[in-house]
Amino acid sequence: MHRHGSYIPKGEVQVFQNVESEFYSIAVAGLGKEDVGFNTLENLDECRENVRVAAGAGARALSSLGISMISVEGFGQAEAAAEGAALATWRFQDFKAKEDQKGVPHLELFMDADSYSICMRRGNFIVKYRYLLLRVDMKDFFCLYFILLNG
Q1: Is there a contact between 55 and 47 (Cβ–Cβ < 8 Å)?
Q2: Is residue 72 within 8 Å of 107, Cβ to Cβ?
């Protein structure tokens, strides 16, 4: 985006519409600084985190426009992109009546290869169990944690 005279900061999104015939809307999200690596102080892979933030911001922007099918770019970190997009579009609706529930968009990885498909399933798996853990008591947490670890 630098070459066109604009810069999109990390986590910010620009949505373009009617640009391409295959996709009605395209969200372009800022990834932050280039060449970030593992932050030993935070024990965090900043590249994966930037991908998570960008994919989530883009998916949220498209979801807010009512788009029900979203293709997510993997950015070379497909699992992190899938996790970010799934976290951003997830809605807690367990206690809502069926007619009051809002739709959650279907997510897929753009240019879906087999490895990307596996990463998307793993990313969605992580998100589902992260929210499941929010709903269980602490005594049940250790039992569930043991089951997840031991398959």
Answers
A1: no
A2: yes
Helices and strands counted in the chain (H then E): 4, 6
For residues 53 and 65, what is the distance between their CA atoms, to the nearest angstrom?
19
- CA distance linking residue 78 with residue 56, whole number of Å: 12
- What digits encode the pLDDT tens for the residues 32-85? 888 888 878 878 888 888 999 999 999 999 999 988 889 888 888 888 888 888
Reading the block at residue 98, the tokens are 């069926």
Pairing of strands 44-45, 69-72: unpaired
Which is nearest to 106 in space by CA: 52, 57, 51, 62? 62
Rounded to two decimals, the pTM is 0.72
Q: Which two tokens stand for residue 134?
A: 């929010």
Could you tell me which residue, 131 or 28, shows the higher pLDDT?
Answer: 28
Structure confidence by residue, pLDDT tens digits, 81-112? 888 888 888 877 777 788 887 877 888 878 75
Residue of 35, 57, 55 whose CA lies nearest to 46: 35
Q: Is the torsion defined by CA of 91, 24, 83, 151 positive or negative?
A: positive
